[in-house]
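User: Please predict structures.

Assistant: First:
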Amino acid sequence: MNWHIREAVRKLAAGGVVAYPTETVYGLGCDPFNGTAVRHLLSLKNRDVEQGVILVASEFSQLEPLLQPLTRAAIKRVQNTPATPVTWVLPCLPEIPVWLRGQHNTLAIRVTSHPVATDLCAAWGGPLVSTSANIHGRLPATSPLGVRKAFNGQLDCILHGTRGSNTASEIRDGLTGTVLRQGSTTHTNEV
């Protein structure tokens, strides 16, 4: 593990907000179980808690304990994600905090294939909040410089790395496979 990842994990453990590259654009993350950290992240973005957030993980086993028991078909669907990034919406346990699920009884999850995001989640040892690095309603940042300009020193750490495309992740219902949002060029979409 490189020292940049170790430093990001240290900041996350202290309740910080970090930026990192994803398969799409730069994302903002924090400890999903630290309500103060999540609310701070949402405040930075000017995003309503009722919308909920996406959780990203390096492997499905980091997310499964947060979900209602799934059928084999649903697990297979989520684990056999296509090459393009897909965020899955699945029924969550009732005790999942409102700051994660918003006004829903579901949780949005994605197993990342991005090397920096994967290393960060693996080093952290669990899922992280993953939301696009932008003020809500504005274009997401696509570089560390874009992140710095958008948040003007308000973040605890910015990890560098190449990112994927400018296409937002597709969002699908994990029980049925139904597409809820097509992967589209990110204008004001959240990743």
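Second:
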Amino acid sequence: MGRDVFISYSHPDQACAYEMAALLEGQGIACWIAPRDIAPAADWAAEIIEAIYGARIMILVFSAGSNDSPQVRREVERAVHKGLCILPFRIENVLPSKSLEYFLSAQHWMDAFPPPREAHYARLCAYLKTQLNGLKTPPAPGAAFFEPAEVLHIERQLAGYLGPVAKYLVQQAALRATGVDDLVARLAIELDTESERREFARRCRVGRSPA
């Protein structure tokens, strides 16, 4: 039976990949990772392909090492052919090689540098939960009703700073916010600097539907 997440990484990043797997599995997200999940005396290539085809999402631990890894490139290629969602989790400030860029150019990125990575793992976990399970939390008493187009506009502005995890953060904040301004204020605290918070709020106001 397949796992929720296939973790692709190069050998120098094994500690990060195993740390990630342990954290995700602690939150109930089933992961497949080599060599841990390859049976003794099994055909490695066959096991990896089977795991990719049984997964729902691939997390690529992206670094200079994985950028130059033929094995990682083959795994990404298989995932693309299968139509699997790929999320590069970038632990170093490097850009994809030409061979990987062909497969990843349309994908979202989640930056996870500089360390420590705990906050980045938490964002990754939140993103995976919303992708795998959907939103199930009921709204809080007094929460406002938001027009879908308005929520999408705010989500797009936040995604410019935080990437795909913005969708989850907006959904969660919308369950408690009492209005649009409150929603924007709740989301602004996710940003690192005051200048980013002000610019985010400005962008959210631009294009907003009149009341």
